[in-house]
Amino acid sequence: MATGRVHGVQRVLAKLDSSLKAGNYYEAHQMYRTLYFRYLAQKKYTDLLDLLFDGAIVLLQHNQQASGADLAILLVAVLSKSGAVLSDEYVLEKLPKLFSLIKPDVPEREVFLMNALQWSCSGSQEHRTGHPELHKNIAQIFWKDGFGCASLLVEIHKMRGYAAEVDLFIAQAVLQYLCLQNMSTAQAAFHCYTSQHPNIKRGPPYILPLLNFIWFLLKAVESGKLNTFKVLCEQYQPSIKRDPSYPDYLNKIGHIFFGIPLPRAQPQGLFGNILQSFFSGLDEESDTESEQGPQPSTSSRQHQRHAQQSSHMETEELD
């Protein structure tokens, strides 16, 4: 009886191999499911996990998205049924690998992710929402996925963002992608976000200047035209000034894609900025006390006026 089952499995494996070599992926998927039920009945969990992982990889790499995702979901089900212990092999490698191969528009992708996270927190009171390393690896995949990132930004803005921030959400992401030298993902995220968001009229041109700036910036980076980049940064100053982080991003983008030297950092650095903020607070307190306490002497007032005039002249020279 056992020998018959072994021969039966071997016949299915041989047929599976023939189907894959012939490119008959629908039939191959059916063979995988047949083997799934047979191995599951025999509790051959290790062999079954290897079979499902390899099968899912093959099908996904041949763009058989629905079939590959189905095997990936079955794999997680086996992990749960077998009581498999959490291991780096699955948390750090295999589950993120499968997730990265399933395209964002495949409905089964979300099912696979939810099931994988649920398995990763099984039996753990500490990680009730899923193992942190699995979350980290999935987040990195989302970050590299322009379409997935854009869809996520659209949903977050609709639920949490202000109407006036609709352009800020995608601008921040695109600039960061460019700073990471990820041009293709930056383009994908921008086009997906602007086409999917219900509050953005199709462009270009766009009604919002910041969106036009980002669109032109992507074109400038793609063409490598330094003068275009410089003109854009000059003409769109009001949009750039909306976020204090934008100039830093653009300095880095100019350096990476156009060879512009990075501006020299101020000697005071971060610690100097903290001290400056601290002393500014002391000055404000001192001003308050001077209003309430004794007035400065005539010579002190003259010295202050002279310092203010000098400061004003220096400011005009800088302007």
UniProtKB/TrEMBL annotation:
The keyword Transport applies. It holds the Pfam family GET4. Residues 282-319 are annotated as: Disordered. Its main location: cytoplasm. It comes from Timema tahoe. It is found in: Cytoplasm, Cytosol. It comes from the Eukaryota. One of its GO terms (cellular component) is BAT3 complex. One of its GO terms (biological process) is protein insertion into ER membrane. Gene3D superfamilies: Tetratricopeptide repeat domain. This is Golgi to ER traffic protein 4 homolog. Belongs to the GET4 family.
